[in-house]
């Protein structure tokens, strides 16, 4: 039997406090439905594959077409094999740390700070240029605040957001560096700053990373983040 206690699964623990979260439980399965959790309507799943597949069929009929199962890559693969109307839609990494990263500095740039709302139009413009695929955008639901690093001339060089955090798990998203400023370690600096800020009073900091983004994977690994393979599914 797989232990599905929420206090043992960070994915479930991340989903449970989300606004409007709904929970379904069976002896060996749990499904948590969260609208707009890190950009998607998610069904966070955990448990024994047969039990999860049976419970998920009920939940899918109740939650509608936009909700997508999300869990460890192993479990999603097992569940998709048991629920023919589903297919794996994405595989990526849940990266996390429970230890402080430690501040990092970069020569020729101002130290990272939290930005005020007056800077959000500037953040939006930079993300459009540097990372248009970002899940986090200023003003979107669940996106709480933005940190940034400016150059000595005042231009915004790199940003990262706190988004979809819970009381126990700080969540980072929207990390982007202006193309002309890449290769200087700014991404590592902003991530170290935000990670340590979010870890204060919490047990861990996490984020989601696409496997194709090798530079980001290397940055987070270098900062001490560990990787858990996760996946999402969708209806065929």
What does this 3D model show about the protein?
The protein has 236 residues and is of the alpha+beta class. It has two domains: 6-93, no CATH class; 99-202, Gcn5-related N-acetyltransferase (GNAT) (Aminopeptidase, 3-Layer(aba) Sandwich). Helix content is 28%, strand content 36%. It contains six helices and eleven strands. The protein has helices at residues 10-15, 49-63, 73-82, 120-130, 186-199, 214-222, and strands at 22-26, 29-37, 40-47, 67-72, 86-97, 113-115, 143-150, 156-163, 169-177, 204-210, 226-235. It has an eleven-stranded mixed sheet, with helices on both faces. A hairpin with a 5-residue loop joins strand 8 and strand 9 (169-177). It is elongated and about 60 Å long. The mean pLDDT is 93. It comes from Actinoplanes subglobosus.
Short description:
The protein has 236 residues and is α+β, with helices and mostly antiparallel strands. The protein has helices at 10-15, 49-63, 73-82, 120-130, 186-199, 214-222; strands at 22-26, 29-37, 40-47, 67-72, 86-97, 113-115, 143-150, 156-163, 169-177, 204-210, 226-235. It is built from 6 helices and 11 strands.
Secondary structure elements and their pairing?
Layout: H1 10-15, E1 22-26, E2 29-37, E3 40-47, H2 49-63, E4 67-72, H3 73-82, E5 86-97, E6 113-115, H4 120-130, E7 143-150, E8 156-163, E9 169-177, H5 186-199, E10 204-210, H6 214-222, E11 226-235
Parallel strand pairs: 3-4, 9-10
Antiparallel strand pairs: 1-2, 2-3, 4-11, 5-10, 5-11, 6-7, 7-8, 8-9
Helix pairs in contact: 2-3
- Into which percent range does the helicity of residues fall? 25-40%
Structural class call reads alpha+beta
Q: Alpha-carbon distance between the termini?
A: 29 Å
> Which second-level CATH architecture of the largest domain applies?
3-Layer(aba) Sandwich
Q: Order of strands across the biggest sheet? A: 1-2-3-4-11-5-10-9-8-7-6
Shape estimate: elongated
Number of strands: 11
Order of helices and strands: HEEEHEHEEHEEEHEHE
Oligomeric status of the shown chains? single chain
Q: Major beta sheet, specifics?
A: 11 strands, mixed
CATH level-4 homologous superfamily of the largest domain: Gcn5-related N-acetyltransferase (GNAT)
Overall tally of structural domains: 2
Give the radius of gyration: 18 Å
Give the percentage of residues in beta strands: 35-45%
Task: Let me know the average pLDDT.
Answer: 93
What's the CATH C level of the largest domain?
Alpha Beta
Q: Quote the CATH topology of the largest domain.
A: Aminopeptidase
Low-pLDDT segments, ≥5 res: none
Number of helices: 6
Protein name: GNAT family N-acetyltransferase
Organism: Actinoplanes subglobosus
InterPro entries: Acyl_CoA_acyltransferase, GCN5-like_dom, GNAT_dom
Pfam families: FR47
């Amino acid at each position: 039997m797989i232990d599905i206690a929420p206090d043992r699964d960070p994915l479930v623990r991340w989903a449970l406090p989300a606004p409007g979260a709904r929970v379904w439980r069976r002896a060996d399965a749990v499904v948590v439905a969260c609208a707009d959790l890190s950009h998607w309507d998610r069904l966070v799943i955990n448990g024994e594959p047969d039990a999860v597949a049976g419970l998920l069929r009920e939940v899918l009929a109740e939650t509608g077409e936009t909700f997508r199962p999300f869990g460890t890559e192993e479990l999603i693969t097992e569940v998709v094999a048991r629920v023919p109307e589903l297919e794996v839609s994405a595989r990526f990494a849940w990266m996390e740390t429970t230890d402080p990263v430690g501040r990092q500095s970069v020569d020729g740039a101002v130290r990272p700070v939290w930005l005020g709302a007056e800077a959000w139009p500037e953040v939006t413009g930079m993300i459009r240029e540097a990372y248009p695929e970002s899940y986090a955008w200023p003003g979107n639901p669940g996106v709480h605040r933005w940190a940034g690093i400016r150059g000595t001339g005042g231009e915004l060089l790199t940003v990262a957001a706190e988004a979809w955090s819970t009381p126990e798990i700080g969540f980072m998203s929207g990390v982007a560096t202006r193309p002309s400023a890449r290769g200087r370690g700014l991404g590592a600096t902003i991530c170290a700053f935000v990670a340590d800020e979010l870890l204060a009073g919490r047990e861990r900091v996490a984020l989601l990373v696409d496997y194709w983004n090798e530079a980001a994977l290397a940055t987070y690994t270098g900062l001490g983040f560990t990787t858990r393979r996760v996946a999402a599914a969708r209806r065929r």
